């Protein structure tokens, strides 16, 4: 699979990344190179093979619905880059 | 014996016998860090006062006979394990000012057992890399030869243990990030079974592959440390509800018994992997002979999907990464870039300035592979191939106790040699990725040196939850092999 400069731009937008114009070409090249290698997965016969989502035990982990002390907003928001008391501040979302 | 030369087991005995104090041991290591870490670059963050306070407390505990195997032992932590009140950066600018409000479960366990947290070690940013060159802070050098990389991503932890700047360390392993740097630095590293150790408080890279494990001076120390950090944790629903055997106690048994009765499998596909360095091959063949002499039956086995491991891994890991790293958006924690008054613009500027190139590359691959129209062709197919890889291993372990292989196809490379060629770097992970894909444990044990004096390890992998076989075989091997100098002179 070959990735174009335009596609890099599109994927970057989906990932909320901004790739500098001067680096798009090289990124397209590197991604194409990697995806071309990954194309070899097409050679594997996966007919009827189940998807694996990992090596964890596949059972539900349940617990009793009991109240526990919450750390509270001062702790939760301690690392916020911008805050007002117990609110995060972000650029305006609603016009 | 000097303070810095002590293993966990040796230091623990001296502490318990009141022959040394934890404060003196910790001070000696902090002095050594002061003296040598400018050259090695193993640590990102040190908090001497906090470490010495923990050491004082440990000495009080020992005086009151309240002692565990780790009481007073200085341990270094890879800087993606959350430490309450101590900066945790993941070697990324995006977490440059991040101070966790809680301890990772492994850190709580170390503290409950009286260990001293001596510092936070360097890594490839968010554990993405095999050389620790992707750190946004510093280059870590290989203590055996400073022109070479220490491996990665737990390169800081491995270098700190090899340079004897701590008693032992914790790393994390998503595709070889404990075992490969351990091999390159001439120390022991074990990636436990998926689910053996709680991942709570480990900053996630690829959640179905990540596992925390010890990097130590010898096999016994790895067992002592693994015993402490293992076990079910209600804060990590993927941690296994399985009894943890007393690995450490088993060593007295290992002393008495030979390795007779054990069977080692050697995958025929591994021998035909392109680009195995002749020096790695030589060390591997010597290791094979050592095991044979110890009474281990060596047999050829087959892992038919070996050729597809790297490709499947480099879809699954970036897909999980692109999802996990979405949380770093400049709102809840970490760095926020100045931007126009637009939310999307703020996200984009924050992520682009906060993440380094390799992290951005993997986020892009993952985003692409998970995007509409491509999901089945990439993530779906890679997950099916993963099933086949797991089945290969299940079959293999019907006929052998452990699988013997090299750790990396070549010894450590020169700093800067591969930075511009991501795919070549990915391909060097061929022998280590499988254990993460299959969820099985793997250990790297020092086995020899290259002609340039760089360490080369060997890897053993066992069936799920059978770390015991790795300790037994690893310890038997370690006792027998003569590699020469154990630690570099700095």
Report on this structure.
The complex is a heterodimer of chains A (95) and B (490). Chain A is mainly α and 95 residues long. Helices cover 34% and strands 4% of the residues of chain A. Chain A contains 3 helices and 2 strands, in the order αααββ. Chain A has a two-stranded antiparallel sheet with strand order 1-2. In chain A, α1 (5-14) crosses α2 (21-38). Chain A starts with a helix and ends in a 7-residue tail after the last strand. The model of chain A has no long low-confidence stretch (mean pLDDT 91). Chain B is α/β, with parallel strands linked by helices. Chain B has one domain: Amidase signature (AS) domain (Amidase signature (AS) enzymes). In chain B, 40% of the residues lie in helices and 12% in strands. Chain B has helices spanning 8-16, 22-40, 48-63, 105-112, 155-162, 179-185, 219-229, 247-256, 268-271, 278-293, 309-324, 343-354, 357-370, 376-396, 422-427, 433-438, 467-480; strands spanning 43-45, 74-78, 116-121, 168-172, 188-191, 212-216, 263-267, 297-301, 402-406, 442-449, 455-462. Chain B has an 11-stranded mixed sheet, sandwiched between helices. The interface between A and B is large, with 50 and 74 residues.
Question: What attributes characterize this protein structure?
Answer:
heterodimer, A: 95 residues, mainly alpha, Histone, subunit A, two-stranded antiparallel sheet, 3 helices, 2 strands, 34% helix, flat, B: 490 residues, alpha/beta, Amidase signature (AS) enzymes, eleven-stranded mixed beta sheet, 17 helices, 40% helix, 12% strand, globular
């Amino acid at each position: 699979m070959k990735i174009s400069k335009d596609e890099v731009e599109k994927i970057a937008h989906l990932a909320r990344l901004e790739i500098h114009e001067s680096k798009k070409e090289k990124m397209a090249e590197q991604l194409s190179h990697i995806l071309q290698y990954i194309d070899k997965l097409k050679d594997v016969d996966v007919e009827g093979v189940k998807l694996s989502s990992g090596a964890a035990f596949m059972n539900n982990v349940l617990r009793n619905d009991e109240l526990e002390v919450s750390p509270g907003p001062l702790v939760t928001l301690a690392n916020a880059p911008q805050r007002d008391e117990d609110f995060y501040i972000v650029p305006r979302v609603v016009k | 014996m000097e303070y810095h030369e002590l293993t966990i087991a040796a230091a623990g005995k001296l502490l318990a016998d009141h022959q040394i104090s934890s404060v003196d041991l910790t001070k000696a290591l902090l002095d050594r860090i002061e003296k040598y870490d400018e050259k090695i670059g193993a640590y990102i963050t040190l908090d001497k006062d906090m470490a010495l306070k923990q050491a004082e407390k440990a000495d009080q505990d020992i005086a009151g006979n309240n002692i565990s195997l780790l009481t007073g032992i200085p341990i270094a932590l890879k800087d993606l394990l959350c430490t309450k009140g101590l900066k945790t950066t993941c070697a990324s600018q995006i977490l440059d000012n991040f101070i966790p409000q809680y301890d990772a479960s492994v850190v709580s366990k170390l503290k409950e057992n009286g260990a001293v947290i001596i510092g936070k070690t360097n890594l490839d940013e968010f554990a993405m890399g095999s050389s620790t060159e992707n750190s946004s802070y510093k280059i870590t050098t290989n203590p055996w030869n400073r022109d070479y990389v220490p491996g990665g991503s737990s390169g800081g932890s491995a270098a700190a243990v090899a340079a004897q700047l701590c008693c032992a360390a914790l790393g994390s392993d998503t595709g070889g990030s404990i075992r490969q740097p351990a091999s390159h630095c001439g120390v022991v590293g074990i990636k436990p079974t998926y689910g053996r150790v709680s991942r709570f408080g480990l900053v996630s890279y690829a959640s179905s592959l990540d596992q925390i494990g010890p990097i130590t001076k010898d096999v016994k120390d790895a067992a002592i440390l693994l015993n402490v950090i293992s076990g079910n944790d209600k804060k990590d629903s993927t941690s296994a509800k399985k009894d943890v055997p007393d690995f450490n106690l088993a060593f007295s048994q290992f002393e008495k018994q030979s390795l007779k009765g054990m069977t080692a499998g050697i995958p025929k596909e591994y021998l035909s992997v392109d680009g195995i360095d002749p020096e790695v091959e030589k060390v591997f063949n010597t290791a094979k002979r050592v095991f044979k002499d110890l009474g281990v039956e060596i047999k050829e086995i087959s892992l038919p999907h070996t050729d597809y491991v790297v490709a499947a891994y480099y879809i699954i890991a970036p897909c999980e990464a692109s999802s996990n790293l979405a949380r770093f958006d400049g709102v809840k924690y970490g760095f926020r870039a100045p931007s126009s008054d637009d939310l999307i613009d703020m996200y984009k500027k924050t992520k682009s300035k906060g993440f380094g190139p390799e992290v951005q590359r993997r986020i892009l691959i993952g985003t692409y592979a998970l995007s509409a129209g491509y999901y089945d062709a990439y993530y779906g197919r890679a997950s099916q191939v993963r099933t086949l890889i797991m089945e290969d291993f299940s079959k293999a372990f019907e006929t052998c106790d452990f699988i013997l292989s090299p750790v990396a196809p070549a010894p450590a490379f020169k700093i800067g040699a591969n930075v511009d060629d991501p795919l070549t770097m990915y391909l060097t992970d061929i022998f280590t990725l499988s254990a993460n894909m299959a969820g099985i444990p793997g250990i790297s044990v020092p086995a020899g040196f290259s002609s340039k004096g760089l360490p080369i390890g060997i890897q053993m992998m066992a069936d799920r939850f059978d770390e015991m076989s790795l300790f037994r075989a690893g310890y038997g091997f370690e006792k027998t092999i003569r590699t020469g100098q154990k630690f570099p002179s700095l």
